[in-house]
Write a structure and sequence with these properties.
- The complex is a heterodimer of chains A (327) and B (359).
- Chain A is an alpha+beta fold and 327 residues long.
- Chain A contains 13 helices and twelve strands.
- In chain B, helix 6 links the parallel strand 11 and strand 12.
- The longest helix of chain B is centred in the C-terminal third of the chain and has 13 residues.
- In chain B, strands 3-5-1-13-10-11-12 form a seven-stranded mixed sheet. A three-stranded antiparallel sheet of chain B has the order 4-2-6. A three-stranded antiparallel sheet of chain B has the order 9-14-15, with helices on one face.
- By secondary structure, chain B is of the alpha+beta class.
- Classes of the chains: A alpha+beta (327), B alpha+beta (359).
- Chains A and B meet through loops of A and helix 4 of B.
């Protein structure tokens, strides 16, 4: 770990002023950042602690949606009654991630900013990592890439996005609210995370000096009938090899509308419009679900060690759809 | 557990000793516990349980010693090659820096006799910092000592090591040309043959022949390995994560070249071992060397990551089994030969090959 300085933000304005200084990074729960600092993967010169900002509330909006403060802890969000009953996929995704201790610290905004578990990214002993050091190469492409992405990869990076929560948020049409030097803005969660392309070190739409303040979930016809399935090497405290978040609006046995997102297999929380198209207007049965899964993984490109993820992701998606229908 | 016998305190009541170092047991308690009839046929609480679940049991790294400073081990990122140059000039200017130790910057060390029967058994026959060769990724290349752990970690990150990299041999199937038959393992002969297994196998009605392999397996107990060394004149006290205090004493004594009477091993509790706290690994020598050099007690804790490379592992095996039986199912021929992966730094498990005849 490299030496760094530390200060606390008194309020949002103060946080924005401090974040304008170069080399400054915001710290919330610290469950990713502190690890990466210990590993010498990230070495910010200055940390601004944003834990005192009044962004820790979950509020129902007048239009029936939900507003979640960026500092709401993952555990509080997972156990919130409104979330559990109206957006069950979000609660399930959160509770499938990390451990109780980590969820007690990790925040909603921080979860969106968490970084990949790619072994090569997390070990500076490997010189080649375009995400850690632009234009240095990618050790995973020809290396041990069992946990890497089959969707959304490029010749520069195939690291997966590790979040479970973000996958659920994609299936819930979440909006990310951001403040910054240029003013406030909001964008769909689908546009928040970036594909690696030729610049895998740029992972989100967040610009220098910006800060996430809230996530909003719209009132949704399908959120209540939703489910998250996560498949991994062990049943607890492990990242997904493949996961699926689905939300379905069901009319009798016909699917009126659906949202499908995949985790653990893609370079960003992966919305599958292809699967949604198959599901929309179709009968909710095993054939439909399998066809949707095939569509979701149609463009998958396996690497040397991760071809198994393609079938695994299909099974996760089918299982999630069955669970959502039965919910 | 309730003490209904009236014969004395039970294990749950008595830990008034709060240090956990000199042991929770008093002589009278021990007599009562072991001599009393209640020890038989009744559920008995684990004697050290209350100390452990209340956090009062002091494990090796928990001991508090005044003036202790901290060491961080620097490991090789390459699996084969040579250290060309170690440049610690930037580290030496870092806050809290006390010392760097590495090949060429340690006193003479001696390979211990490596005789299990006389209780000297290092995990590696090669002595730490013995030469500039790198035999495996994770091999200790240098040790950095500073006032605090954070300062030691930071200073360690400033040490520049230049390696001459050679191609590593990492696939067992490419090393089969180096297989040999070792004489013994822990004083016992490895090859054994009874009867005529090949002849018996040739004539049996039912045959089974198969090759089984097991992967490398790592032991990772809850408590990572740690060593804290404190010198008092020529006397060395080592607070160790060891299950073999005599082995630790003898092996460290032989390595340092000092009489074993001058070494005291303190290891009242172990937070799991699974095999990695049996033999004596280089960290136990490193803490002693560092403490001598800086003239202060030195604590050296292994990180969780270092537990995968610094205190052994169960090696990969390839096992060929031949079973022969008569039509009625009676076994008449058993042949079992196995090859164990080993390493160039001095093996614990030899590349063993043994054959069992018809038993």
């Amino acid at each position: 770990m490299q030496p760094f300085s530390f200060s606390q933000a008194r309020n949002q304005e103060d946080a924005l002023v401090q974040l304008r200084q170069s080399g400054t990074v915001a710290i919330a729960g610290g469950t990713t950042l502190v690890d990466l600092m210990k590993l010498d993967v990230q070495s910010p010169a200055h940390l601004v602690d944003i834990n005192a900002l009044p962004l820790n509330r979950i509020e129902t909006l007048p239009d029936g949606g939900l507003r979640i403060g960026a500092m709401v802890r993952n555990s509080d969000l997972a156990h919130d009654e409104t979330v559990k009953t109206r957006y069950p996929v979000l609660s399930q995704a959160l509770l499938s991630g990390a451990s109780a201790q980590l969820r007690n610290m990790a925040t909603t905004g921080g979860n969106l900013m968490q970084r990949t578990r790619c072994y090569y990214f997390r070990d500076p002993g490997y010189a080649a990592c375009n995400k850690r050091k632009p234009s240095s190469g990618c050790a995973a492409l020809e290396g041990f890439n069992r946990i890497h992405a089959v969707l959304g990869g490029s010749d520069h990076c195939v690291a997966t996005h590790p979040s479970d929560m973000a996958v659920a948020l994609v299936a819930l049409d979440a909006l990310v609210h951001i403040i910054g030097p240029q003013g406030d803005r909001q964008l769909p969660i689908e546009d928040f995370h970036k594909l690696p392309g030729s610049m895998p070190h740029i992972e989100t739409a967040i610009q220098n000096g910006e800060l996430i303040t809230h996530i909003t979930l719209p009132k949704s016809p399908f959120a209540q009938r939703s489910a998250y399935v996560k498949l991994r090497d062990r049943a607890s405290y492990e990242f997904a090899l493949a996961s699926a978040a689905v939300a379905i609006d069901l009319s009798g046995s016909t699917i009126r509308a659906a949202r499908v997102a995949l985790g653990g297999v893609a370079t960003k929380p992966w919305r599958s419009h292809e699967a949604e198209q198959v599901l929309t207007g179709a009968a909710a049965n095993a054939d439909t679900f399998r066809t949707a899964a095939e569509a979701a993984l149609k463009s998958a490109k396996p690497l040397r060690y991760n071809a198994f993820k393609i079938e695994l992701a299909k099974m996760a998606l089918v299982r999630a759809l069955i669970q959502a229908v039965q919910a | 557990m309730q003490d209904t016998s009236g014969q004395g305190p039970t294990s749950q009541q008595h830990p008034t000793n709060t240090t956990g170092i000199s042991g929770p047991m008093t002589t009278t308690t021990r007599k009562s516990e072991l001599g009393g009839r209640e020890a038989f046929g009744n559920p008995t609480s684990r004697y050290d349980g209350p100390l452990k679940v209340t956090g009062r049991a002091a494990y090796a790294a928990d001991h508090q010693i005044k003036g202790v400073v901290h060491a961080v081990a620097i490991q090789s990122p390459i699996a084969n090659g040579r250290v060309r140059k170690i440049d610690s000039s930037a580290a030496e200017k870092a806050p809290g820096f006390l010392a760097t130790l590495h090949h060429g910057r340690v006193p003479k060390l001696y390979r211990p006799s490596n005789d299990f029967m006389s209780a000297t058994k290092p995990g590696e026959i090669r002595v730490v910092f013995e030469d500039d060769r790198v035999h495996y990724a994770g091999q200790y290349i240098a040790l950095l000592v500073a006032e605090t752990l954070e300062q030691a970690n930071y200073a360690a990150s400033l040490v520049k090591i230049d390696y001459e990299v050679a191609p590593p041999l990492i696939e067992t199937n490419k090393a089969m040309g180096t297989v040999y038959d070792p004489d013994q393992f822990f004083g016992e002969k490895l090859a054994a043959k009874r009867g005529d297994p090949d002849g018996a196998y040739a004539s049996v009605a039912i045959k089974h022949e198969a090759t089984y392999s097991t992967p490398i397996e790592h032991h990772n107990p809850m408590e990572p390995a740690a060593s804290m060394a404190a010198w008092d004149g020529d006397e060395l006290t080592l607070y160790e994560t060891t299950q073999w205090v005599i082995g630790a004493r003898n092996t460290v004594a032989e390595t340092l070249g000092i009489p074993e009477e001058q070494i005291h091993i303190v290891s009242p509790f172990i937070g799991g071992g699974f095999g990695c706290k049996g033999f004596i690994w280089p960290h136990s020598v490193l803490s002693a060397l560092a403490a001598k050099q800086v003239g202060r007690p030195v604590k050296l804790n292994l990180t969780r990551k270092q537990m995968f490379s610094a205190c052994g592992h169960r090696s990969e095996t390839i096992q060929k089994i031949k079973l022969g039986a008569g039509a009625e199912g009676k076994l008449t021929a058993i042949s079992h030969s196995r090859v164990n992966a080993s390493d160039g730094a001095g093996e614990i498990r030899s590349r063993a090959r043994c054959v069992t005849g018809n038993c």
